[in-house]
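Continuing the series of single-chain predictions for the mutant panel. This is the parent chain; the variants come on the following pages.
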Amino acid sequence: MNKGNRTTFKPIVSDFRQIRLSSIEPQERKRIFREVLCFALIVIIFGYTLYPFILALLFPIRHSEDYGILSGIFHGLIYIENLFLSIFDHGRLVVASGQGNNYYTSYRIAKHTFLSIGILSLIYIIFQQLTYKLARAMPKTSSRMEPCIPLGEFDPTKREMRIFISSTFRDMQKIRDVIMCKIFPLMQREADERQVRLIPIDLRWGITEEESQSGKVLGICLDEIDKASPFFIGIIGGKYGWTPDHKDYGKDTLLATKSPLISQALEEGLSATELELKYGVEWRPYSDDAIIFINPLSLTQNDCQEFLQRWIMDSGAFNYKEFSEIDELERLVESYIRNLLNKYYPITEDNTSDSELRKLASLTYPLRHFYLEDSNASGPIEDFLRESDKNTIIISGEKGIGKFAAALDCAYKVSDQVLAIADNKFSDSHNIGKIMAETIYNDNSIDILIFRAPADISLISQLSATAKKLKPDLKIIVISPSDSRTDYNINPDIHILSEFAHDITFYRNFIIKYLGSFGKKATEEQIDKILAAKQPLTPAILKIILNELIVFGSFELLDSKIETLCSFPDKSSLYKYLYRTAEKKYGKALIRKISEDLLKEDEVHVTKFSEKHIWHAFSSTDLRACASGFCGFDYYKDTIRFSDNDFETIAKQLYGRDSADRRTSG
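Parent structure:
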């Protein structure tokens, strides 16, 4: 493929030449003919019936006493044709007066000329539509070369799916924002049910200036494609994008190890986006796990982009789908990811009646998505599980410090039979001791039980004693906030681990590894800014800050974004900022209404937002994406709740009744 081919490519002629009606399924042919016929009828009706009515309203018309409005419409047409004729010959106009119309030769020529142009235009439009649809329906015989790069060796047992997103940047900012802020958070909730972690690789930022200046941008992108393969999302619009300099090939030794075809592609002047498509999809064995979304209606920037669009659709080298609007693309990307989950991690029907605790336990999987081990903090927990004669340990520390995640990680190192309940609402239950005891009695497979401390922590002693009688080898881990009352007479079977905490080295490594899992890098200066945040850092707060940065799409404004996120003196002011940011991402009305409803009820089911409700202005995808993507809401199986009490407190300040009264009085 050279540049000469690009400039001489004729889309309609190319479509027409490849059509073989016999190779298209009969039902598909009928559908296409029916669609084109309906389209032609619509054009005829609007072009030859509605058009005269519009003219009759816009221009002065002489009404005939004999023929009424129909004659008036006819006169309106003649009036417009006279306007065209007057441009060429002032003396030879057509006069329509009632039933006696004198047609000059020039008028008849003009009349039939305009009529012929209209008919030819109609034929062209119908031919273009028919050709385009038939060509798209043709089975593609792949013209691709023999694959020279193997597909990535995806290991489902790791329960992690990295998906590379390829597109031009500046013209696709809004589309990428929708995918990162709405679609992936929504699909992650579905992946949680299957205990799978989705990792979108969006490289709008993450390549340092030093790497960029040394010509390593392309090599880093291709390396991330290798890590994500076979999963790949390409989005093609109207712009061709940045074209790398062939000199960069010599600067980056990584490129030479990828494929010998890269050098040739750079010599031909291919854009980075087209090279990503070739490297990630075309040069590998065909796989439905890679997909290209293309907008054929977008205005192409140049001949290269027009050729790229047609090549994707006609070559047979790609699994592609077309879209015209962002809403349509949302549905397509959502369907693509859901199909991947169903393919590699199908949900098996289990007819056994799990206990309520087992159902709640499935919600703890997201805590294992990313955990950075701190041996100083988690070492004593693991020692207790492996060596201690006591059956219960109480871990206390600051809220959000990572106590539950550390306990969960240590527990799964020791046994696969772990029952972990992170649900705060359940932890407030006064019957927790009775429910836990019944669970231990009915489920002998449990080796380790983890749950948050109830309001009355004295119940733990009773639970520990009961567990020792029912199952002596069961280990119980209780997660307790620092302010819990622990000065009671504790029995000898309970161990206390207080002041669970991390040092600054842990947080630095946390930032590097967390961003690295998404293919991103921060400079040392940026990491220092995050560590110097005004409010005390915990893993929970740090994850919120880093997640806001990961979905942020502007490299130029990244430093400013970091400064803003780290400038808040306390958690409350940060959470207020997150609410305001969410209003911009998902819509102020949506965030406000969900918050107001949650302040009235502990949880709200999505079915409440029916078409009769205020939500008729929003799609169900908008609602679910908002509930999934905003960290203040906890969304699971069509049920929405506040993620924790702090977000609920801020919601009361922003959207509660007192806040509404202040707005009204103001």
